[in-house]
Amino acid sequence: MRKLTNLNVVALRPLITPQQLKTQLPLSERAADTVGLGRHTINEILEQRDKRLLVIVGPCSIHDPVAGLEYAARLQRLSEELKETLFIVMRTYFEKPRTTVGWKGLINDPYLDGSYDVPKGLSTAREFLLKVAEMGLPTGSELLDPIVPQYIGDLVAWASIGARTSESQTHREMASGFSMPIGFKNGTDGNLQTAIDAIVSAGGAHHFLGINEEGESCVVETRGNPAAHIILRGGRDRPNYGPVSVYAAEERLEKAGLPKRIVVDCSHANSGKQYALQVHVMRDIVQQRLDHTTSLVGVMLESNLEEGRQNLGDAPKGLRHGVSITDACLGWDATEKLLRYAADRLATCNSCPRIL
Q1: Which of 69, 78, 274, 295 is 20 to 30 A from 332, alpha carbon to alpha carbon?
Q2: Whole-angstrom distance between the N-terminal and C-terminal Cα of the chain?
Q3: How far apart are CA 62 and CA 77, in angstroms?
Q4: How many angstroms separate the Cα of 25 from the Cα of each of 19, 251, 326?
């Protein structure tokens, strides 16, 4: 009989179940407190009951857990100093969407060498998140593969759906069941409607196929995620973080019957893919906050121990410590200076009248 299935599949390798991995790397009480408080605080910021600025900051992607933990320790100390004005969440991205091909992130290829040891990647990602949470620092991550959240979702305080996947029905349904707040980026072409439709969809109840913690296929029934919000990231090399763009986004959200809550991605098209220009975007957002643009609840920054980026190449052991292998990032010194500036400025004005 002619073979009709798996014609282009080389291998099917069974995975450890989510529950087995959680048994190996259990959620500690300290980590659970960090995640729970982080989610609660972010919800309070989205509802504008907490007036602090949400700041999601960290490497474009985690490729070296040692450097990542060094960054986390620095960020945790700084977050304690600035906690009266800023609520800081570390960006911990383990999955990278690709338009064509390329390194897909630590979960997919943890050794950076094309060996694709996904079981090792999942355990490395979970262990990393656990250590950061035990420092008392909440984390945020882009969730790309619909199976991955079962392995690490209990350790994530905030999540995002990227510009390439905000239009995906699978990701909208998945987000409807998330236990953490979820941000949807506008499309790569700058289209806001993609993200607005995603927020509406994620806020509704859904039934879809998924897996449970035992790794069994099942029908997932969700009630909808009330903490979905938009992330402005610019589009087609044009920014959309300025007052006119923010006001237009507010109007679109209001027309859709959605809360006016906006996070601005200071990188990507908003900085023209020039990592140093994130500083100017952040300063602009601070000024808009001082003008009492209350819809601006948060910002995202790409930052690492050292500035810039490096190519992965064929010799991952020769990579420079603390330098991104994906998007170029601000260095630590510039990041610390920028966050201190934002905290100082925002501390001077808590009730400025809105201009618009």
Answers
A1: 295
A2: 71
A3: 20
A4: 10, 45, 28
